[in-house]
Amino acid sequence: MAHANNTRSGNVHQKTTRSMMSIGIQSSNAANFQDDSNNYLVGYLPADAIVTDAYCFVAGTDATAATLTIGTAEGGSEILGGVDLTASGKQGTFPGAVATDTGLPVYVALGGKITTAKVVVNIHYDEYLLTTGELTLID
What average pLDDT does the segment 63-85 reach? Predict the structure, then answer.
């Protein structure tokens, strides 16, 4: 028995949008992140998305702020946990896909004050209901 052909029904094969949230923490805005015992709300992920990757890029090193954690709840590490800020370059291991459902807040927690390093947090996500209108090639 053949299944129904749904290759062109609705937006099944329309291209979806891949987006990225970037959060920069450096000396110019470090005053906003000076209490190392707090979690900082830095933004919101949209509804109907799946977080597919996350990492930090550290330029320089900062021994006073040894770790950074990114979560969807205060104190959480659903996106990144225990990122080492004492080493430069791409840091952090993404634990796995996170569904945003109705949308999620993004919190940053620091294990100390950032004084010299420049840290950029990148969170990649796919918005699966937001389409470009273009169709993918089907042979």
Answer: 85
